[in-house]
Amino acid sequence: MSKVPAVLLSSVLVLAGLTACSTAPATSASDCEPVVQGGSTSTAVRVSSDLAEEPDAHFSAPLDGTVTERTVAVAGDGPVVTEDTLPSVTFSIYDGTTGDEVVSTGIDAPTLATALAAQAPVIDDALQCATGGSRLVVTLGGEDAAPLAQAFAGYGVAADSTIVVAIDVHDVLPRVASGSPQAVFASGLPAVVQDAEGTPGINIPSTPAPSTLRVAELIAGDGAPVDTDRPVLVNAMIVLWDDGQIVSSSWQDNTPSLLDVSSIAADDAMGQTFTTMLSDRTAGSRVVAVVPPENGYGAEGAGQIPGGATQIIVLDVLGNLGDGQ
Asked: How far is 131 from 133, CA to CA, in rounded Å?
């Protein structure tokens, strides 16, 4: 058995047609119809129920599944996983042919389920309607199992093996800001709008850029307080004030990034700006900042940000990973 590190990806560049609206995740499991149902294969797997320990799954091998099935071994009382959410998970993968555990992430470092779903897209479906704090058994058969069987061929997994995944759902975070819109009275800030999916866009005023750092909360999140001593999951967009160029945006493939401001140096101006944006926020908040050069990358610039540039940054503060269990 091997440990698999938690992996988070970041992405760039998006802007869509814009209107003012907001989205929010479903709040009741009873209102949610699972995409993947249980069956004789998933119910044949017995898994330990102590969420403080790694899942320990047992079944009579070989397990022969032809479709993907899901059984809820432990039902949590946290938020519901929907298409509008980002669940953080840990998991263990078993070879259905031999019964052996192939890999495990452990339980101490949850990562976004998107990392696992990138290997096996059906995982996204299997997680729908699960709740934070749950332990699931997912059995993948046929074409659904093939990507994982191929990925772990080096561990002795046969190409036609049924794959068993025991998944712990830790926290369920919003994909976009969700909460109470806030009145903003500060001058010098651009207007921030969003499309039907929650993707922001920025209307930059024709006035000169402010010469001092301006920060405002646009949406007060309705989630848990964010702990800036731990990495914070965010969606982020950076736009140049002068020409409106989108330098980066993580909304394109719905893959947020982790910001770790716990060890920011006092002379790291950009890091201190992110610290200011994240401090005293709750999950689901949206924050905008106008960042002059002295609070950003100075006269030298960095990457696609030229020297002396004023940046506009929009953050959706999604929360800390692993809070839900």
From this structure: 6
What are the tens digits of pLDDT across the range 231-252? 899 999 999 999 999 999 998 7
For residues 312 and 190, the answer to whether their CB atoms sit within 8 Å is: yes
The pair of three-digit structure tokens given for residue 148, joined into one six-digit string: 């994982």
Amino acid of residue 306:
P
- Give the residues across from 262 on adjacent strands: none
Tell me 78's DSSP state.
Answer: S
At residue 25, the pLDDT reads 47
Q: What is the pLDDT of residues 28-62, one digit of tens each?
A: 777 899 999 999 999 999 999 999 999 999 999 99
User: What is the per-residue DSSP string for 57-75?
Assistant: EE--SSP--SS-EEEEEE-
Provide the residue type at 198 as one letter.
G
Reference 293, options 191, 210, 215; nearest CA is 210
Domains of the chain (ranges; CATH) run 25-172 (3.10.50.40), 179-319 (3.10.50.40)
Percent of the chain residues past pLDDT 90, beyond the cut? 76
Residue 30 CB contacts under 8 Å (≥ 6 apart), including other chains = none
In sequence order, the β-bridge partners of residue 48 are: none
**Distance between CA atoms of 266 and 312, rounded to whole angstroms?**
22
Ranges assigned E (strand) in the chain: 2-3, 46-47, 57-58, 69-74, 85-95, 101-104, 111-112, 135-140, 163-174, 179-181, 191-194, 200-203, 214-221, 232-240, 246-249, 257-259, 285-291, 311-319
> H-helix or E-strand containing 273?
helix 269-278
Mean pLDDT of 185-212: 92
> Phi and psi at residue 155, in whole multiples of 5°?
-95, 10
Beta bridge partners of 285: 317
Q: What share of the chain is helix, strand, coil (3-state, %, to 5)?
A: 15, 30, 55
pLDDT at 21 over 90: no
